[in-house]
Design brief:
Keywords: Cytoplasm. It comes from Desulfomicrobium baculatum (strain DSM 4028 / VKM B-1378 / X) (Desulfovibrio baculatus). This is Universal stress protein. It is found in: Cytoplasm. It holds the Pfam family Usp. With 146 residues, the protein is α/β, with parallel strands linked by helices. It has a single domain, classed as Rossmann fold. It is 47% helix and 20% strand. The chain has a five-stranded parallel sheet with strand order 3-2-1-4-5, with helices on both faces. Strand 1, helix 1 and strand 2 form a beta-alpha-beta unit. The protein is globular. The N and C termini lie far apart (33 Å).
Length: 146
């Protein structure tokens, strides 16, 4: 039984996600571990700041989640061809969702980027990695994208 048998790898599909995937894959090959790749879609609460009509929010979040699921399937196929990797899309506060999922899935380590998409997302989510590092019960390996 290796020290790292399950890796949680949060991605946001930005360019830095490819770097993270590469590291997580190397880890998985070295430790014969499985990878759970996760994308956290924003929850409805996070969209309320945009003053969108409330009725359109469930539809909006639903569309984002199904779009992300399709992107995730492609991402996993492209970046994890030779390892045991599964993709999962959840919605909510990014840091909270990542920490909760790591616990629920009994992950041994979280491998993530220190920052992802710039602009609005950066503003919306603040530093997700920082929050994860502070609140995670399992080790977190953060990587600065090139």
């Amino acid at each position: 039984m290796s020290m790292f048998s399950k890796i949680l790898c949060p991605v946001d599909f930005s360019e830095s996600s490819a770097d993270i995937a590469k590291t997580a894959r190397e880890f998985a090959l070295k430790f014969n571990a499985e990878i759970l790749v996760v994308y956290v879609a924003p929850s409805m609460i996070q969209y309320e700041i945009f003053d969108l009509p409330a009725a359109s929010l469930p539809q909006l979040v639903g569309d984002i989640v199904s779009g992300a699921e399709k992107t995730m399937t492609e991402f996993v196929a492209k970046h994890f061809p030779d390892v045991n990797a599964t993709g999962k899309v959840v919605s909510g506060d990014a840091a909270e969702a990542i920490v909760t999922l790591a616990q629920a899935e009994k992950a041994d380590i979280i491998i993530m980027s220190t920052h992802g998409r710039q602009g609005l997302n950066r503003l919306l989510f603040g530093s997700v990695a920082e929050k994860v590092v502070k609140t995670s019960a399992v080790p977190v390996m953060t990587i600065r994208p090139q």
